[in-house]
Write a structure and sequence with these properties.
By secondary structure, the chain is mostly helical. It has one domain (2-230). It is built from 8 helices and no strands. The longest helix has 27 residues, at 61-87. The protein is globular, with a radius of gyration of 23 Å.
Length: 233
Amino acid sequence: MTKHMITFLLLLGIGAIFADLLTGFSADQNLNASAEFYATHTVSDTGAANIVTAIIVTFRGLDTLGEVTVLFLTAAIVALVLSGDMAGGFQVKPRRWPVGELLETGTRLLVPLIALFGAYVFINGHLTPGGGFQGGAILASAMLLMLLADPTRRFAHKTIARIESVSGLFYVFIGVLGLALAGGFLDNRILPLGDFGSLLSAGAIPLIYVLIGLKVGAEFSSIMTSLSESEDV
């Protein structure tokens, strides 16, 4: 009874805090100085129609590198822990998983479409809502669908690791080129800005997003394959 009362009081206090924030909120009529600068200069400086993703890739390039690094460390830790469990005596006991014809056919049909949509999202990230993280997550969802259809399916860890490593290496390489040839790390002006609104525009941003999409997709896929292979199916 006491635990329930404490929980209720805690939730009541949190609700009161959010209620105060909600009732006391008033939207700014004008952008602050930083937002005004980015809203005014991002298009002319980067040549990207999507201001949000351009800021993430260029002005926040180091922060984006940190986010990708955290995701890589997560995938590496999951693989390390699960591989240690298997080496210590835990072994997967594979058995045939009954896969329905409808489920198998649907997976074969949807996986290429999901992969194509994921590629579209990160290739067009400088033009439309989307980007490398979103596109990479969509690519990984294709692998998740295959695992849901057949949990005994196994994927080549080396191939996934190579995709992740190569894309990460070129991502950092482009960032260093920005320092050497342009105005800073991941400065997209190492390539021509092109025609505004076209696919081949915004300098190196499309290339950067392709690398981020492949890297994120590989990292998510690595986590899922490690988890799937650790389960006693």
